[in-house]
Specification:
- Helix content is 38%, strand content 15%.
- The chain is an alpha/beta fold.
- The protein has 2 domains: 229 residues, Type I PLP-dependent aspartate aminotransferase-like (Major domain) (Aspartate Aminotransferase, domain 2); 137 residues, Aspartate Aminotransferase, domain 1, CATH 3.90.1150.10.
- The chain has a 7-stranded mixed sheet, with helices on both faces. Strands 7-6-11 form a 3-stranded antiparallel sheet, with no helix packed on it.
- The relative contact order is 0.17.
- The model has no long low-confidence stretch (mean pLDDT 92).
- It is an enzyme of class 3 (hydrolase).
C-alpha cells in the first residue's frame, strides 16, 4: 500500500514518559482522578470554554448531551452527510432523527431545508464537521436562536479547526469530540464535551458519572451511565493536547504537498472550498471532481485503491446516511423523515463528487509523489 487512510498514531518516547510521570503523581487511576481534572482544565483553556468534560468516546459525548437536552419523541435535525454513530446516539436517547440537506459544496446546513423540516417537536440541531471541515456559521446560529433550537456540534473530527466564530465545537450550545486512535487528539478511545452552559455541564457531568449528584455527594438522585475517562487515557490526552498545534502545522504541509503534486497538475480534481475558515485542522483533504465528469468520487477511489491508495471514500463507501440499512429498514414515513435522496440534492451531489485523501502524520512526501503518479495515470485512462 502506497498510502493508507488506516494508520497507527505516532507515539514518541517523550510523550510516553510524560504520561507515566503524570500517572506516577496521580491520586487515583479511575475517572475521578486529579489527572482527569487536569486534562479537562487543559481542554477548557485551549478551546476557551467554561466547561470541559472528559468521556469514554465521542458517541458517549453525543449520547450524554442528548439525554440531557431532549425528551423521548423529540425531533433532532441531523445532516444527511454524517457517520452512523451520530444517528445512533439520537436513537439511543429515544429521539427522532430528521435529516436535512447541506449547502452546495459544503457541510453547513441549508437554511431552506431546515425551515421545511422544522416542526413544533424540533428541539436540537446537530451539525457534523466531517473531516475537520466547517459545519456551522452565523446564519445557522441565528436560525436556531430564533426557533429556540439547541445546537449540538458533532466535532469528532475537527479538533483545532476554527473560523471567525471560534473553534468548531464551541460555536453552538454543546460541542462533542472524539479522541479515538485516528483523531488529532488521541487517547486510544475517548472523547470530551465542551460547553459554556453551567446547567448543561452539571447535567452532562452527572450523567457521565452514573448520575452522581455533586451537591449531595451521592448517587441515586439522577439517571446516568459510566462514561468516565480513565486517568491513563487522560494522561495521554494531556501530552497529545500539548502537541496539537504542531500536528496541525505538519498536516498543513501535507495538504500543500497534495496540492503541489496532484491538484496543480490536473483540472479534474480540486480542493473543496473552505470559506471563512481561518485554520483547517488537516484531518483529511476533501476534494471535488469537476461537475462535468461522468464518474463519481467513489468510482475513482475504487480504481486508485487497486494502485495502492486507500481513502476514506473507498473504505467507508461514502453515502448519505439515510441510505444505511439500519435507518431504511426500521424507520418509515411518516414517523421517519427524509428517506428519499431527492430531499437532499446538495448532499447527494457532494457525495457523488467527493474524494477524500488522508493527511495523517505517517504519510511522507515520497508516498504522495508516488500516489500522485498513480492517480494521474488512472485519470488519464478514464
Amino acid at each position: 500500500m502506497i498510502i493508507d487512510c488506516v494508520y497507527k498514531a505516532l507515539r514518541n518516547k517523550s510523550e510516553v514518559e510524560n504520561s507515566l510521570k503524570i500517572l506516577a503523581d496521580a491520586d487515583l487511576l479511575s475517572g475521578d482522578s486529579s489527572v482527569v481534572k487536569q486534562y479537562e482544565e487543559k481542554l477548557r483553556k485551549y478551546f476557551k470554554t467554561k466547561h470541559a468534560i472528559a468521556v469514554s468516546s465521542g458517541t458517549a459525548a453525543l449520547h450524554a448531551s442528548l439525554m440531557n437536552v431532549i425528551n423521548p419523541g423529540d425531533e433532532v435535525l441531523v445532516p444527511a452527510i454524517c457517520v452512523p454513530m451520530t444517528v445512533s446516539a439520537i436513537l439511543q436517547a429515544r429521539g427522532i432523527p430528521v435529516f436535512y440537506d447541506c449547502k452546495e459544496g459544503s457541510f453547513i446546513p441549508d437554511i431552506s431545508c431546515l425551515t421545511r423540516r422544522l416542526t413544533s417537536s424540533s428541539k436540537v440541531l446537530i451539525t457534523v464537521s466531517m473531516w475537520g471541515y466547517r459545519a456551522i456559521d452565523s446564519e445557522i446560529v441565528g436560525f436556531c436562536k430564533e426557533n429556540n433550537i439547541v445546537i449540538i456540534e458533532d466535532a469528532a473530527q475537527s479538533a483545532g479547526t476554527y473560523s471567525s466564530l471560534g473553534y468548531e465545537g464551541t460555536v453552538g450550545d454543546i460541542g462533542c469530540f472524539s479522541t479515538h486512535e485516528f483523531k488529532l487528539i488521541s487517547t486510544g478511545e475517548g472523547g470530551f464535551v465542551l460547553t459554556n452552559s453551567d446547567s448543561y455541564a452539571e447535567k452532562i457531568r452527572s450523567y457521565t458519572h452514573i448520575g452522581f449528584n455533586q451537591s449531595c455527594s451521592s448517587f441515586g438522585y439522577a439517571d446516568g451511565l459510566n462514561y468516565k475517562l480513565s486517568s491513563f487515557q487522560a494522561a495521554i490526552g494531556i501530552s497529545q493536547l500539548d502537541n496539537l498545534d504542531l500536528k496541525i502545522k505538519n498536516r498543513e504541509k501535507t495538504i500543500n504537498v497534495w496540492d503541489s503534486l496532484l491538484l496543480n497538475k490536473c483540472d479534474t480534481i480540486k480542493a473543496m472550498p473552505m470559506p471563512d475558515v481561518i485554520r483547517h485542522n488537516g484531518y483529511s483533504l476533501c476534494c471535488l471532481l469537476d461537475k462535468n465528469q461522468l464518474f463519481s468520487g467513489k468510482y475513482l477511489a475504487s480504481k486508485i485503491y487497486l494502485s495502492g491508495i486507500n481513502t476514506d471514500t473507498f473504505r467507508y463507501k461514502n453515502t448519505i446516511v439515510s441510505n444505511y440499512p439500519l435507518y431504511n429498514d426500521f424507520y418509515k414515513p411518516p414517523f421517519y423523515y427524509g428517506i428519499n435522496e431527492k430531499d437532499f440534492p446538495n448532499a447527494v451531489a457532494l457525495v457523488q463528487r467527493m474524494i477524500v485523501f488522508p493527511c495523517h502524520e505517517r504519510i511522507t512526501e515520497g508516498a504522495i509523489y508516488q500516489a500522485a503518479i498513480e492517480i494521474l495515470k488512472v485519470l488519464r485512462s478514464m
